[in-house]
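Lecture notes, unit on protein representations.

Consider one protein chain, 516 amino acids long.
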Amino acid sequence: MSESSTKPALPTVRDAHGNTRSVATLFELSRTGRQGVTLPPLDEGADETALMQSILPEGWQRKRPARLPEVSQLEMIRHYVNLSQLNHSIDNNFYPLGSCSMKYNPKICDWVGNQPAFNLVHPEVPQALAQGTLGALYTLQAYLKDLTGFCAVSLQPAAGAHGELAGMMMIRAYHQRQGNTARTEVLVPDSAHGTNPASAAMCGFDVVEIKSNERGLVDLNALRAALSDRTAAIMLTNPNTVGLFEEDILSITQMVHEAGGLCYYDGANLNAIMGRAKVAHMGFDVMHLNTHKTFATPHGGGGPGSGPVAANEKLEPFLPKPTVEQRPDGTYWLNHDRPDALGQLKLFYGNTEVLLRALAYLVCYGGDGLREVSEKAVLNANYLKARLKETYHEPFTQTCMHEFILTSRHQRADNKDINTMALAKRLMDYGFHPPTVYFPLIIPEIMMIEPTETESKETLDRFVQAMVQIADEAKTQPDLVLDAPHTTPVKRVDEVAAVKQLDLNYFANHAQGAGN
């Protein structure tokens, strides 16, 4: 009996396009004696042992071969190509993940970031030999200052939450310098991003939640009641996480300032207003920008990210150091001589390649282009909202910005077993990534949908068709929805069991069984 006949059939999956793909691991594909690369023999008379010892000391050499799968080169190539096609990405379909801006990013931005003149520069190269990179970063600082209306920018923070932390550290440093040590409270709306209260707490502040009103906006009465001589700052996302512009934004910042506090702006949703409004003009003192989502680097999966922080004259002295500055002779340098500044937040100088992609994006679009980006993002969101509001429950009826929320209230009224999670999982069978679900927590069974500016009307219409079809299935074929997804490598799982019975070591559990 041949070896292949003793092994069980390899697992496959039918994707959303009807194609059958292997989802076998390389260990399941492994067959003893199979290899992908044949190395040439050593020269006649060469001593293999002596050669190995000249490369690696004896204590570093393996005592037995590594437990690696034995596959042909073609099998290995097909394995990784199949994996790449099973993964959902913005390159193969719509990714309406609210508050994360999973939009198409121009390939020229990747091209700029991958230029050897940039990505082969050693982090410790003398500044005189890195003038091109420093000049590009200086230019980006200038563009971000113009875009936001602030007087100074530091590009150091490595992610949005890192920028938040920097901003709150600056606010803490400011109050300490002023002798306002009693200002220990930070006000955070209940519609805020989850990192906001975490960043405030990490800086030693007490977090005070501010409730939203019936229209999904900051309740001014609740804000007024929370303000006191203990107020250090407010952290505000605008547009907020239900996709609405805070209509009372000027009143909010004025109230906080009159109480002696500062105003922090979470820039995660900047793509809804860039080119149309400047954050500094709304009365804010400091903000962070998510260049990895507002501009040009694909976001998700934990990185890469970049969260530059911008500040007004009041907080500029506390920006993280070093900052990129220009001498009178036109050369650039990293200024570490800033006595009130926060210390260095990241080894070397930020995520430079992400920043270079952002610069390329800004240069490509220009001021008018950025305004058009925001306008189309808002238009697409309102188009989807209008198409779906009769099928799904619409908590807030006013015009939204770049994202909007719906709920599964109508579907649950017909069948209590149907919930937003089930609808999201079924959407995967149609080839779309699910929207954000169950966030923010202020609305039950929420789904937050962000189409971005880069999707065509045809794509949006296909998404609407899928969402309407799923709503019909929830009523007429509920088991089809409740058992979804059907086309993914991992089918419906027991979420409770997955939390309580974690299997975090696949290799240890399965590699031995693969004969390695």
